[in-house]
């Protein structure tokens, strides 16, 4: 028997993807006393800006997960829900729409192309996963005659040979596409608000200072920076890369690490706007190798903003922050949006090689942004009861691939409440002892500190 019921009071810390997804599923299941706290009022920003990973123009939706079949299947499931949300948006009444909430789509099947000097092992593993799922015909190896023929038949042909003068090999994956991240989060928050979920966001009232517990580790609620105490039956910590600040036990298991985002403002030249629109241009990943954390990705133009967003993979930086006498986990460096000189130099070379036409027409870097990953030692999300405490769930660890699961991560929290944890996912997402894992994300062994790097200046951003 669960000690919680539909009237239990539930506090969620964080209104990013993990917090929203949790509230979404809890409210689907009939829980009706949910309050979400966030130090930033992301809804009023329409989830654009605010220095959190979830608050962003767009993210990659992908179903390819090398040999990790469980994420592959979870992504296939989440896509269906994104598609349903798009339909739901079409069905909203005009009176429900406003500047934030529009009928612009949330998921866009523009495809994704990966280019490299050769077909890598990474690529071969992906192709094998798709074959196993019976989806091999959604993949187009760029120089495979049969695949080219099939691409032409299925309307993907025009996305195969984007850079004829550059000799790269690769694969076009037609199951991947864009999630318009800000629209997706705004929509979910809108739904939650209309169902009566309470939001306390922004300023000191929204910023959680402490999780309140008694001497036995029994959690009672939270305190906020306005001096208030909020009591609840259950607290769910979903504060992304800041989580370790409120729960130092996460140190070495899940910490914040920096990611690099660049906005290119594309000139209002009709031919360029068309050429780089999602109808004609897929997401491009160039020499992206997760194993070595290298390479660059670029999205087609997001309208109406007119932005092509670039993400740069490189070994990440940390910001170790003492939270008590023993622990100094990495949490986001406050208000830093500059990228390092090394990264900007690499991006400029990339733009010169692939997009001379944009440079010719005066494309500009309009924004740089440091967004923080919530990395877990072994890349698997953490959704579990916190050990040695009661009434506290931790829901975090997106590790750079969590956004695409906005529609369906929350159900694993519901499973915890219902004691329904003997499934593959809840087992994988359990709290774990970091010492026994290989450090695939550089959490133990990384001493690269962001504040010590040489940053690019405004002049360095000139193309
Ligand atoms: C650069 C980058 C690129 C990515 N690309 C992709 C991609 O292409 N595809 C994909 O699927 N995933 C991607 N991800 C991963 C995805 O964005 C994350 O997994 C997801 O957004 C994490 O959501 P979250 O809710 O855990 O954290 P966050 O979005 O960081 O949200 C945490 C929230 O907690 C709030 N908070 C923190 N501390 C407190 C406090 N004390 N009190 C109150 N509120 C607090 C913050 O304000 C914030 O709103 C990417 C991540 C990064 C960084
Ligand atoms: C929700 O929970 C809070 C905290 O326990 C309580 O004060 C409030 O009355 C509850 N609201 C409803 C509608 O049950
Ligand atoms: C929980 O408490 C036990 C006993 O004090 C301790 O050995 C263990 O390390 C604790 N677990 C965590 C994750 O803190
Ligand atoms: C919510 O979670 C429950 C329990 O895990 C699941 O059965 C249900 O399908 C989920 N709902 C949505 C919309 O994801």
Description of the molecule:
The longest helix has 23 residues, at 69-91. The chain has helices at residues 17-28, 69-91, 121-132, 145-154, 181-194, 203-206, 243-246, 270-275, 341-354, 356-360, 411-417, 424-428, and strands spanning 10-13, 34-38, 59-61, 107-108, 112-116, 139-141, 169-173, 177-179, 198-201, 208-213, 219-224, 229-231, 234-237, 254-265, 283-289, 294-298, 307-313, 364-376, 382-385, 392-396. The protein folds into 2 domains: 10-99 and 181-253 and 377-436, FAD/NAD(P)-binding domain; 110-179 and 258-373, D-Amino Acid Oxidase, subunit A, domain 2 (D-Amino Acid Oxidase, Chain A, domain 2), CATH 3.30.9. The chain contains 12 helices and 20 strands. The chain is of the alpha+beta class. Helix 1 runs parallel beside helix 5 and helix 1 (17-28) packs across helix 11 (411-417). 25% of the residues lie in helices and 23% in strands. The structure holds flavin-adenine dinucleotide (FAD) and 2-acetamido-2-deoxy-beta-D-glucopyranose (3 copies). Flavin-adenine dinucleotide (FAD) binds at residues 13-19, 37-40, 42, 52-54, 59-60, 206-208, 238-242, 246, 259, 261, 311, 371-374, 396, 398, 400-404. Residues 13-19, 37-40, 42, 52-54, 59-60, 206-208, 238-242, 246, 259, 261, 311, 371-374, 396, 398, 400-404 line the site of flavin-adenine dinucleotide (FAD).
């Amino acid at each position: 028997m669960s000690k919680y019921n539909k009237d239990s009071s539930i506090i969620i810390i964080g209104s990013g993807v993990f917090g929203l997804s949790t509230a979404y599923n809890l409210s689907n299941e009939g829980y009706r006393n949910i309050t979400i706290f966030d130090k930033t009022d992301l809804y009023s920003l329409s989830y654009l800006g605010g220095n959190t990973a979830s608050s962003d123009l767009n993210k990659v939706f992908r179903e390819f997960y090398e040999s990790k079949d469980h994420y592959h299947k979870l992504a296939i499931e989440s896509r269906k829900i994104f598609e349903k949300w798009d339909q739901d948006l079409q069905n909203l009444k005009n009176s429900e729409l406003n500047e934030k909430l529009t009928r612009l789509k949330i998921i866009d099947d523009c495809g994704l192309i990966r280019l490299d000097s050769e077909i890598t092992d990474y690529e071969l593993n992906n192709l094998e996963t798709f074959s196993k799922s019976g989806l091999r015909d959604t993949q187009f190896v760029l120089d495979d005659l049969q695949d080219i023929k099939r691409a032409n038949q299925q309307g993907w042909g025009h996305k195969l040979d984007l850079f004829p003068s550059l000799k790269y090999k690769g694969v076009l994956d037609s199951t991947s596409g864009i999630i318009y991240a800000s629209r997706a989060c705004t929509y979910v928050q809108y739904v939650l608000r209309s169902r009566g979920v309470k939001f306390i966001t922004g300023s000191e009232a929204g910023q959680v200072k402490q999780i309140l517990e008694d001497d036995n580790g029994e959690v009672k609620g939270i305190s906020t920076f306005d001096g208030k105490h909020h009591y609840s039956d259950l607290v769910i910590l979903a504060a992304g890369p800041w989580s370790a600040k409120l729960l130092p036990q996460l140190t070495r298991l899940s910490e914040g690490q920096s990611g690099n985002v660049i906005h290119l403002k594309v000139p209002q030249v009709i031919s360029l706007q068309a050429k780089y629109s999602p109808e004609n241009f897929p997401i491009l990943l160039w020499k992206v190798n997760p194993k070595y954390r290298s390479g660059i990705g670029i999205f087609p133009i997001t309208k109406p903003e007119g932005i092509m967003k670039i993400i740069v993979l490189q070994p990440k930086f940390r910001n170790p922050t003492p939270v008590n006498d023993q622990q100094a986990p990495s949490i986001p460096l406050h208000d830093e949006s500059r990228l390092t000189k090394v990264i900007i130099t690499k991006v400029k070379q990339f733009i010169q090689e692939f997009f001379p036409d944009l440079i010719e027409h005066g494309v500009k870097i309009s924004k740089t942004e440091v967004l923080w990953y919530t990395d877990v030692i072994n890349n698997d999300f953490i959704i579990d009861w916190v050990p040695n405490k009661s009434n506290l769930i931790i829901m975090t660890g997106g590790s750079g691939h969590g956004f695409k699961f906005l529609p369906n991560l929350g159900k694993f929290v519901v499973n915890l409440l219902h004691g329904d944890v003997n499934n593959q996912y809840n087992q994988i997402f359990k709290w774990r002892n970091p010492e026994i894992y290989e450090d695939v994300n550089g959490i133990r062994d990384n001493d690269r500190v962001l504040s010590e790097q040489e940053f690019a200046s405004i002049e360095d951003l000139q193309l």
